[in-house]
TrEMBL record:
Compartment annotation: Cytoplasm
Site (Could be important to modulate the pK values of the two catalytic cysteine residues): H166, E215
Similarity-based family: Belongs to the diaminopimelate epimerase family.
GO cellular component, one term: cytosol
Catalytic reaction annotation: (2S,6S)-2,6-diaminopimelate = meso-2,6-diaminopimelate
Binding partners and assembly: Homodimer.
Pathway listed: Amino-acid biosynthesis; L-lysine biosynthesis via DAP pathway; DL-2,6-diaminopimelate from LL-2,6-diaminopimelate: step 1/1
InterPro entries in the record: DAP_epimerase_AS, DAP_epimerase_DapF
Stored PROSITE patterns: DAP_EPIMERASE
Protein name in UniProt: Diaminopimelate epimerase
Tagged with keyword Isomerase: yes
Gene transcribed to yield this protein: dapF
EC number: 5.1.1.7
Pfam families the UniProt entry points to: DAP_epimerase
C-alpha cells in the first residue's frame, strides 16, 4: 500500500489545537490510518488532526479537505484546522478569500488582520443527523443519563451536528469536571453510534462561554473550533446566551456568530504556522 513517506508537511495550530497540513494536491493518496497513528506518537509529531488537501472537483474551490484524527479515524469538520489551511492557502496564493470543500459541504474562509473567519454552515439538530442511536423528540437536552451516575452534572446533554457530532453538557462549574476521566466513556456512549465530541460548558454571561472539550479520536485538546460552534448554537437555542458569543477555551478565545439571516455559523479566531518538513519512514512507523 502507498505510504506518505517523503511527502512534505506543515505543522500549524489553531489556539493550540495541533494540526498537520498535508498538501496532497500534486499526488493524491489516502492517509493510511496506521501511518496517522504512528505520526501522532508523543515523541514523533503529536497532532490532534491532519488536514489533507486534495484537488477539488469543482472550479472556484481551492481544495477538497479530508480530516484525519490522531486515532486514524475520519471527521466531517474541524474548525481550528480549517482556519489553519485557510492561512496556509493565503500564504501560498495571497488571496484572502479561500474556499474548501469537505464531506460536510462548502467551507468559505476569509483571512484578515483581525483573524480568520470560517463559515461552518448551518447546524443540524435532528436526531438522525447527529446521529443518535434512536428517535429523540427534543435534542436540546437528551432525556438520558448520558454520563456516569457519580457525576450528576454530566447528564442530559444538548446535541447537534455542525459537520460532526457534538454533545454539550452545560454545568455550573466547568473547572470542577474531570473531563479527562469521563471523556472516553462519554465519547463512546451507546447513544452516539458514530461516537461524539464531548464538551463541558459554563455560561459566564449572555455573550461569554467557558469551554473544555474531549475530542472524538483525539482526546483532551487545548481548543476545538467545531465544539465552540456547537456549544454556541446549543446555548442560544436553550436561551442561555445571545447568538454572538465569545467562547474561551484553554488555548484562547473564539468568536462565534450564529447568523440569523441564513442560519450559518461564523467562527473567527487565529491560526499559526510553526514549522515544516518532510515525512520519513521512521516517523510513519514504516519498515523497509
Ligand atoms: N479539532 C477540531 C475537531 C476535529 C474533529 C473531531 N475530533 C471529530 O472527530 O469530529 C475542531 O477544531 O473543530
Amino acid at each position: 500500500m502507498a505510504s506518505l513517506a517523503d511527502r512534505p508537511f506543515v505543522k500549524m495550530n489553531g489556539l493550540g489545537n495541533e494540526i498537520v497540513v498535508l498538501d496532497l494536491r500534486d499526488g493524491p493518496m489516502p492517509v493510511p490510518p496506521e501511518e496517522a497513528r504512528a505520526l501522532a506518537r508523543p515523541d514523533v509529531l503529536p497532532f490532534d488532526q491532519i488536514m489533507a488537501l486534495y484537488p477539488a472537483a469543482v472550479p472556484g474551490i481551492d481544495a477538497y479537505v479530508r480530516i484525519i484524527n490522531a486515532d486514524g479515524s475520519e471527521a466531517g469538520a474541524c474548525g481550528n484546522g480549517t482556519r489553519c489551511i485557510a492561512l496556509y492557502e493565503y500564504g501560498r496564493t495571497g488571496r484572502a478569500h479561500i474556499r474548501f470543500e469537505s464531506i460536510a459541504g462548502l467551507l468559505d474562509c476569509n483571512v484578515s488582520s483581525s483573524g480568520i473567519t470560517v463559515d461552518m454552515g448551518p447546524p443540524r439538530f435532528g436526531w438522525a443527523d447527529i446521529p443518535l442511536a434512536g428517535p429523540v423528540a427534543d435534542t436540546r437536552a437528551l432525556d438520558i443519563q448520558a454520563g456516569p451516575a457519580e457525576a450528576p452534572a454530566l447528564a442530559h446533554p444538548a446535541v447537534v451536528n455542525v459537520g460532526n457530532p457534538h454533545a454539550v453538557f452545560f454545568v455550573p462549574d466547568a473547572a470542577a469536571v474531570d473531563l479527562g476521566r469521563y471523556g472516553p466513556e462519554l465519547e463512546r456512549h451507546p447513544a452516539f453510534p458514530d461516537r461524539a465530541n464531548i464538551s463541558v460548558a459554563q455560561v459566564l454571561s449572555p455573550d461569554h462561554i467557558l469551554l473544555k472539550v474531549w475530542e472524538r479520536g483525539a482526546g483532551l485538546t487545548r481548543a476545538c473550533g467545531s465544539a465552540a460552534c456547537a456549544t454556541a448554537v446549543c446555548a442560544a437555542r436553550l436561551g442561555l446566551t445571545c447568538r454572538r458569543v465569545t467562547v474561551t477555551l484553554p488555548g484562547g478565545d473564539l468568536t462565534i456568530d450564529w447568523r440569523e439571516a441564513d442560519d450559518h455559523i461564523l467562527m473567527t479566531g487565529p491560526a499559526e504556522l510553526e514549522f515544516s518538513g518532510r515525512l520519513t519512514p521512521d516517523m510513519l512507523g514504516v519498515t523497509a
